[in-house]
Amino acid sequence: MAADAMLKFVQLDQAYPDKRAAAARVADFRELADRYAAPDAGEQAGRCSQCGVPYCAVHCPLHNHIPDWLRLTAEGRYREAYELSNATSTMPEICGRICPQDRLCEGNCVIESAGHGAVTIGSVERFITDMAWDQGWVEPVAVGPSRGQSVAIVGAGPAGLSAADYLRTYGYDVHVYDRHDRAGGLLTYGIPGFKLEKPVVMRRVDRLRAAGITFHQGFEVGRDASLDELRARHDAVLIATGVYKARALDVPGSDLPGVVEALDYLTASNRRGFGDPPASGAGALDAAGRHVVVVGGGDTAMDCVRTAVRQGAASVKCLYRRDRANMPGSAREVANAEEEGVDFQWLAQPTAFVGGAQVEGVAVSRMRLGPPDASGRRAPLPDQGGPETIRADLVIKALGLDAEDLPQLFGAPGLGVTRWGTVLVDAKSMMTSLDGVFAAGDIVRGASLVVWAVRDGRDVAANMHKWLKARAEQGRMAA
Predict the structure, then answer these.
(1) What's the CA gap between 243 and 423, in Å, rounded?
(2) Which of the 8 DSSP states describes residue 19?
(3) What confidence tens digit (pLDDT) does each residue in 231-248 have?
(4) Pair 329, 301: CB distance under 8 Å
(5) Mean pLDDT over the full length of the chain
(6) Which residues, at least 6 apart from 255, have a Cβ–Cβ distance to it below 8 Å?
(7) What is the b/e burial string over 267-293, where b = at least 16 CB atoms within 10 angstroms of the residue's CB?
(8) Three-state SS across 347-364?
């Protein structure tokens, strides 16, 4: 290794790829910044201190070999850097774009703790993987010798796609069943293009399809086949549906026209980006010319406010019942939204949606923070004074997602679930209460990060492989 390739953090400041000016970027759904030029990526990677205990890797759910591929990038060995990054992740360029690095790898960077500014890990990961696609270094899935066994995966989100990738390399016939007309789950329909441009997702799906993985689109388990019928068709089943049931906001006026769910709103916007014809009533999900209020403080709320700005809303406000320091969303996303003109109303709790034939406003009570609640965060309490009304003719509820009632939907009363509706699995094997049926991703964890779904897909594929091998061996012995 060149002696001067690393440890540049003392003389070289942290620098992310330049963002486009806010006035320019709100005019389209392109990503905020282009990737680094090669010398810039190498220099920023060279800021890594190559510390003995890489907390960045420890705090990455995938335990990526981050210092090692940063060193390779700093030395200009981009293909090797990509290959090492790709060795632990099926979607490195996607995680590089949408992981909350400020809470994971970069937030735990040793030089960040020393006051020098974290290494820009996510941006370098995106750089080396995008270069790999451009240069043709991304190889087809290495399909293993056929095992004569097939697997059904229910759900084409990140957990399902990650598991499909690994299971195909093990040599299984893989069938992915998904309710949507395109694979990708929330990567495709939930996350806006300014964070994750859709060709980035589709090329991953195309790579899996080229490996012989069969996608059954527009397929709903429970409508088109029961879970038991899938179990009869395949040797094992993976449930990786994610969570899609919107959390309720139980205040008067929640059923007024113009009060919509975040996922419905984002899905309609992403479909427009694909060029799909508008669905019936889709105009209710367009913010153009309207006064928009988004309720919530997570990353989905940030996606909604920034989408509304790009659709040409007359005004966009975000209501959150805690303060900035206690909000769950990424601080970077809040900063991006503020640059784009979003008005954040901190310590604000909706008490009613008001209007007649259409929502016209949101009644808001101001809050203060009390002692910490069971989660350790300071609990919001009503402050003095009466409610005020904020003008709104489109209200988007972004309060999070819960699990659907899968035992009922799938016609599988024997499928064990928790009191939150998530699927119960054995902690070691990841198998459900039904023999040969596994589960992974948000449907087990609850709403979580894409990187955790990718990790779960990797882990469950290994567990399914172990179980299927044992089952095949038992069949040979019985014969």
Answers:
(1) 11
(2) B
(3) 999 999 999 999 999 999
(4) yes
(5) 95
(6) none
(7) bbbbbbeeeeeeeeeeeebbbeebbbb
(8) CEEEEEEEECCCEEEEEE
How many Å is the maximal CA-CA distance in the chain? 78
Q: For residue 21, count other CB atoms closer than 10 A to its CB.
A: 9
Instruction: Tell me the domains of the chain and their CATH numbers.
Output: 8-135 (1.10.1060.10), 150-244+402-478 (3.50.50.60), 248-399 (3.50.50.60)
pTM higher than the cut 0.85 = yes
Q: In sequence order, what are the residues at sequence separation of 6 or more whose Cβ sits closer than 8 angstroms to the Cβ of residue 297?
A: 318, 320, 321, 322, 327, 328, 329
Alpha helices per DSSP H over 289-446: 299-310, 331-339, 406-409, 442-445
Decide: 422 and 439 in contact? Cβ < 8 Å: no
Our CA angle for 440, 249, 338, nearest 5°, is 85
Residue 34 sits at φ, ψ, to 5 deg, of -75, 165
Q: What are phi and psi of 201, to 5 degrees?
A: -75, -45
SS3 at position 320:
strand
- Cα 96 from Cα 86, distance rounded (Å): 12
Query: H-helix or E-strand containing 293?
Result: strand 291-295
Kind of pairing, strands 388-391 and 359-372?
antiparallel
Q: What is the pLDDT of residues 264-317, one digit of tens each?
A: 999 999 999 999 998 776 678 999 999 999 999 999 999 999 999 999 999 999
DSSP percent split of the chain into helix, strand, coil, nearest 5: 40, 20, 45
Other C-beta atoms lying within 10 Å of the C-beta of residue 217: 13
Q: Residue 347: CA atoms inside 13 Å, Cβ hemisphere, count? A: 14
Amino acid, res. 78:
Y
